[in-house]
Amino acid sequence: MKNTRILNSLALLFVCMLMSTIAWAQNEQKASPPATATGKVGEADITVNYSSPAVKGRQIWGDLVPYGEVWRAGANEATTVTVDEDVMVEGKELPAGTYSLYTIPGEDEWTVIFNKTAKQWGTQYDEGQDALRVTTKPRQAATMNERLAYDVTDQGLVLRWENLEVPVTITAQK
């Protein structure tokens, strides 16, 4: 009888510890939580799926994200862009589909890359799979953005992080 009481007490203690660990883990914020931006350009639906890292007091452009090198445009898995209709990106054709999104940041100009291999870890970039490369000009953001964010507007998409915005013009294909 005494052994049964001890075993029941130990089992109850174990269950309580397990439940508190699970509850704590669910409340813990991921360093780069997943995020989604959606919108329409003309009749085309556009969805951007990405992981959103934070600045956390770091110098982003030219340091954490070096100039002149391919960057996965987010964290963790590759950022993806899905367009459900053919569109024009910075005046160049992009067929409907899902693409991984990479960039090559520069101080005055960025290369934005739509890669045909959508399901991949962000650092597994293969230039041979590029569907489209375009260039765009970054600009100073109106406000500081602690977390990387994408917005889909009727003009295209905009990457915002730290004190920078990178607009990518998207229009309906004619």
Automatic annotation (TrEMBL):
| One Pfam family it belongs to | DUF2911
Superkingdom as given in the UniProt entry: Bacteria
Keyword field: Signal
Which region is the signal sequence?
1-25
What InterPro entries does the record tag this protein with? DUF2911 (IPR021314)
Q: What is this protein called?
A: DUF2911 domain-containing protein
Q: What is the lineage of its organism?
A: Bacteria, Pseudomonadati, Bacteroidota, Cytophagia, Cytophagales
